[in-house]
Amino acid sequence: MTARGWFLFSLMGVVWGIPYLLIKVAVDAPLSPSMVVFARCALGAALLLPFALRQGGLPATVRTHWRPMLAFACIEIIGPWWTLTDAERHLSSSTAGLLIAGVPIVGVALARFFGDTERLGMRRVIGLALGLAGVGVLTVPHLTGGDARSLAEVLVTVVGYAAAPLIAARHLKNVPTLQLIAPCLALAALVYAPAAALTRPAELPSNEVLAALAALGVICTAVAFVAFLELIKEVGPTRATVFTYVNPAVAVAAGAIFLDEPLTAGIVAAFTLILAGSVLATASGPGSATGPVLRHPGRRGLAQRLRRGPDPRPDRGEARAR
After folding, report:
1. Backbone angles phi, psi at 160, to 5 degrees
2. Residue 231 phi, psi (nearest 5)
3. Contact at 8 Å (CB) between 135 and 127?
C-alpha cells in the first residue's frame, strides 16, 4: 500500500474501534437504539451536507445514482447501525468490537461470490487467517455473556459492513465522497427521526452521554466515512475492510483503559496476530504489478522460429530485407 493508504488504514483502525465504547455509554444511559442512530446520523449529515452542496451538482448526483446510493445507505448505515446498537444493550462493547472483526472474511467470500477479480494471493490469505486466529483468541472468552439474538444482530451488521464496500467500489466509485455520504446520512436520520422522537429521554442526558453522542457523530461518522471511502478508492473494497482486524484491539484497549477490564497475556498475543495479519492481508504480493512483463524480442522470435521450423516461403525474408 502507499503511504496515503497506510495513513487511512491506521485512521480507520482507531476511529471505528472506539464507537463500541461510545455506543455502550449511550445505551446504558439508557438511550434507545433509534435515538443513538438518529443522533449519530443527524450530526454527521449536518457537518457534511454544507461541504457536499458547496461542491455543486449534488441533486444531479443523487438523481443519477440514487439506486446504488439507497442500497449503500440501507446496507451500511440504516440496518447495521441499529442492529449493532441494539446488540450492545446485552453485549459488552469489547465483545461487539471483537465480533465485527469477521468483516474481512465475509467480504472476501462475498467478493468471490459476485465474481470480483481483485487478486487474493497466498500472502493475503495467510494474513486473513492470522487475523481471524487473533480475533478467535480474543472472542471466545467473551462469547458466554451474549444471547442468541444479540449475536445474530452483530452477524447482520458484519454482513452489511462486508457488502456495502462492494457496492461502493462497483457502482459509486466515481461519486465524490461527500456527495455519497452526506445524503446517505441525511436519509438515515430521516428514517429514525420518528422512532427517536417517540423514545426520547424525559430529561437531558448527562454530559458524559452527550459527549459520547458528539464523538459518534463527528469522529466515528463524519470523519470516519470520508476516510473509509477514500481508503476503498485507494486499496480496493476487500483490502479496505481489513482494518476491522485492528478495531477489536482498539475496543479491548479502550475497555482496559476506561472500564478497567483486564489486559491478559492472551490479549497481548491476539494483538500480535491481528496486527501481523493486517499487514500481510493489506500487502501487495510479488508479481502483482499490472504492467506487462518485458522479454527479449530477439530470443522470443528465435524460439518461435525454432518451434515452427524453416519458413516455407523463402521470399518473406527477402521482402523483409527490402
Report:
1. -65, -45
2. -65, -40
3. no
